[in-house]
Specification:
The protein has 101 residues and is an alpha/beta fold. The protein has helices spanning 20-33, 82-90, and strands at 14-16, 38-40, 56-58, 65-68, 73-76. The chain has two domains: 14-58, Uridine Diphospho-n-acetylenolpyruvylglucosamine Reductase, domain 2 (2-Layer Sandwich); 63-96, no CATH class. The protein is flat and about 45 Å long.
């Protein structure tokens, strides 16, 4: 279910990825379906683009955060939510500006 109830998608199938190789498998399956597919990370899109009627590749399981405080750099998985990211970075005195909270 999307945040905005105006949009009520019903994907033909959903692949929940936990690893990068899972994404490769999901892309192969989605392409084989011949239908347009959607990739969803956090699952929020007020315009309804988080899902559709074709395959849905969910990458929210790819949510790791590695912080190099000395270089003020972080490597963040595509499924990481802003709240989690900012809470982790706060411990290092770092912050990434984003949209709404």
């Amino acid at each position: 279910m999307l945040v905005n109830p105006v949009f009520d998608p019903s994907p033909c199938f959903i692949v929940c990825c936990k690893t990068v190789p899972d994404v490769a498998i999901a892309l192969t399956l989605a392409r084989a379906s011949g239908m347009p597919f959607t990739v969803r990370s956090g699952g929020h899109c007020t315009a309804g683009f988080s899902a559709g009627s074709g395959p849905l590749i969910d990458v929210k399981g790819l949510n790791t955060i590695t912080v190099d405080a000395g270089n003020k750099m972080a490597v963040v998985g595509t499924g990481c939510m802003f709240g989690t990211l900012n809470a982790t970075l706060e411990a290092y005195g770092l912050h990434v500006p984003g949209g709404e909270f």
